[in-house]
């Protein structure tokens, strides 16, 4: 999910605190009705997409909606939404999963609107009812912010039936079975076509964006949460293309090949020369300043990009404002020695691929450092690092990914290391212990060998540029890393969908060739 503007997501408890005064000050159920109207509006859009007959005035005829209604306010949102759909001319059915705890006023409103109410006795009864009704759209109003763990048996069974019937589902607030804070998807979770949330995004909308369908945010009059002292609370942010374009470094009037920030790349080996080419070429495509290459693949690198300044030994590389090390280097003892020297430099360092494995096996090479260190592991590399530096967080990626990343960063910080961790995936997580980002690439076209080498080169170039005039502060390193990831994702999409085709698999070289166009596109969005 790539998007133009940044958006922020919050913990459930903070959202409840922000909602409470607004709900208390409003007339009874006014905020709930406003939220329900937004849900009904999305449901109507879903139904109209199926070419159901309408009269042009908002009425829909011959269509039906069914709501899976849980207890409390989330169920109340669903009941009021069904009542709104009934006023649009649709036949609506409320399937109460907790009849004794249904929202009484919303249930009465549904009945006044002519809605039918069903109280099935168990999972089999729900299945029979759904198969008989075959609604054009279903509402998931089972649980909301208070959700934890997998849906109960009846709800999980209903989710499976709706999926089998291919019924489009609109989730109210958050899909049932998705943890609102961690984004963990539990067995039996609803798979919606769209999710409508209210006022503020929940963390799960970023951490589990691929499980939420199309996201809609309805304004219900609440502002950003604050703590007891009025300070902003912790957020999880997703950087948009406009921010990436605005922050991408371009040469100024007085810039030269040095002032834009020189990045040095230690990558490649006789076995993996391609890694050297990909990382170095990516850096060239990301910056107008000098790119230095160090390693045994000078000939291949210079044949590919003759403007690169190449050498064989890291200590003779020349001055650089940032280093990248790891892609294709190998994991022998000489790699540990080179990494120890690179990590001794008082500039930002990006470690990827083999460098991460070596770091996990030789933790003594990582000493206190104030200069930023960016680690870019995939899941396997992350676990290797966690087993060495944060054993309590090893093996946790199948659950709370964001919590595991924060745990590793916290442990590194306790060692005096100023680290930012980028955990690769369709939804990439970036965290330095203070600021966290979750970036959905929107596609998985970049899941190809060498793609990470390209990303490492891009990040290094951005960090080198940010060491010069107009440099980012240390606290903004995660943002710089995030904008590199955004452009990397845009480049992957451009390469896969070249010439307007629906999309086809690409190699890292194709992604590499699209970086220039991706930078131009995000800069155009920024205006």
TrEMBL record:
Q: What class of enzyme is it?
A: lyase
Q: Which Pfam families match?
A: Carb_kinase (PF01256), YjeF_N (PF03853)
> What UniProt keywords are attached to this protein's entry?
ATP-binding, Isomerase, Lyase, Metal-binding, Multifunctional enzyme, NAD, NADP, Nucleotide-binding, Potassium
Q: Which residues form the YjeF N-terminal domain?
A: 15-228
Which Gene3D superfamilies does the UniProt record give? Answer: 3.40.1190.20, YjeF N-terminal domain (3.40.50.10260)
Q: Which SUPFAM superfamilies match?
A: Ribokinase-like (SSF53613), YjeF N-terminal domain-like (SSF64153)
Q: How is the cofactor bound?
A: Binds 1 potassium ion per subunit.
Q: Name one GO biological process term.
A: metabolite repair
Q: Quick one: which residues bind (6S)-NADPHX? A: 275, 328, 378, 453
The entry's family comment says: In the N-terminal section; belongs to the NnrE/AIBP family. In the C-terminal section; belongs to the NnrD/CARKD family.
- UniProt function note: Catalyzes the dehydration of the S-form of NAD(P)HX at the expense of ADP, which is converted to AMP. Together with NAD(P)HX epimerase, which catalyzes the epimerization of the S- and R-forms, the enzyme allows the repair of both epimers of NAD(P)HX, a damaged form of NAD(P)H that is a result of enzymatic or heat-dependent hydration.
Assembly information from the UniProt record: Homotetramer.
* Protein name (database record): ADP-dependent (S)-NAD(P)H-hydrate dehydratase
Q: Which species is this record about? A: Dietzia timorensis
The gene it comes from is: nnrD
């Amino acid at each position: 999910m790539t998007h133009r503007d940044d958006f922020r997501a919050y913990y459930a408890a903070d959202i409840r605190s922000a909602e409470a005064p607004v709900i208390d000050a409003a007339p009874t159920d006014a905020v709930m009705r406003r939220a329900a109207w937004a849900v009904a509006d999305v449901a109507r859009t879903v139904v109209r997409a199926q070419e159901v007959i309408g009269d042009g005035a908002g009425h829909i005829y011959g269509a039906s909606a069914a709501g899976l209604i849980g207890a409390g306010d989330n169920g109340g949102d669903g009941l009021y939404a069904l009542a709104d759909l009934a006023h649009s001319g649709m036949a609506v059915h409320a399937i109460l999963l907790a009849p004794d705890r249904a929202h009484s006023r919303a249930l009465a409103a549904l009945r006044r609107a002519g809605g039918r109410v069903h109280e099935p006795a168990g999972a089999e009864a729900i299945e029979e009812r759904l198969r008989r009704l075959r609604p054009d759209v279903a509402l998931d109003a089972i649980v909301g912010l208070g959700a934890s763990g997998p849906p109960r048996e009846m709800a999980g069974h209903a989710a499976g039936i709706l999926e089998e019937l291919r019924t489009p589902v609109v989730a109210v607030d958050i899909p049932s079975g998705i943890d609102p804070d961690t984004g963990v998807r539990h067995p039996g979770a609803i798979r919606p076509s769209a999710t409508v949330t209210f006022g503020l995004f929940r963390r799960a909308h970023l951490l589990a964006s691929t499980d939420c369908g199309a996201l809609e945010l309805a304004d219900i009059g609440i502002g950003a949460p604050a703590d007891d002292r009025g300070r902003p609370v912790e957020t999880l942010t997703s950087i948009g293309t406009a921010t990436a374009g605005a922050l991408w470094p371009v040469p100024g009037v007085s810039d030269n090949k040095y002032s834009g920030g020189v990045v040095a790349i230690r990558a490649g080996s006789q076995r993996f020369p391609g890694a050297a080419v990909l990382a170095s070429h990516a850096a060239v495509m990301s910056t107008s300043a000098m790119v230095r290459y160090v390693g045994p693949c000078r000939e291949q690198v210079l044949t590919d990009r003759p403007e690169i300044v190449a050498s064989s030994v890291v200590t003779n590389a020349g001055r650089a404002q940032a280093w990248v090390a790891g892609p294709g280097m190998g994991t022998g003892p000489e790699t540990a020695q080179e990494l120890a020297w690179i990590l001794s430099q008082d500039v930002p360092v990006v470690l990827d691929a083999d460098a991460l494995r070596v770091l996990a096996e030789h933790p003594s090479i990582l000493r206190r450092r104030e200069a930023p260190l960016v680690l870019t592991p995939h899941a396997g590399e992350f676990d290797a690092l966690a087993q060495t530096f944060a054993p309590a967080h090893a093996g946790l990626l199948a659950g709370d990914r964001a919590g595991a990343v924060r745990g590793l960063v916290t442990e590194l910080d306790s060692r005096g290391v100023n680290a930012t961790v980028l955990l690769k995936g369709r939804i990439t997580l970036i965290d330095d212990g203070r600021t966290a980002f979750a970036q959905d690439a929107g596609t998985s076209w970049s899941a190809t060998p060498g793609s990470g080498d390209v990303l490492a080169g891009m990040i290094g170039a951005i960090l080198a540029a940010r060491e010069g005039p107009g440099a980012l502060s240390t606290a903004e390193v995660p943002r710089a890393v995030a904008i590199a990831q955004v452009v990397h994702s845009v480049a992957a999409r451009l390469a896969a969908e070249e010439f307007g085709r629906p999309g086809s698999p690409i190699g890292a070289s194709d992604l590499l060739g699209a970086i220039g166009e991706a930078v131009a596109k995000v800069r155009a969005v920024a205006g």
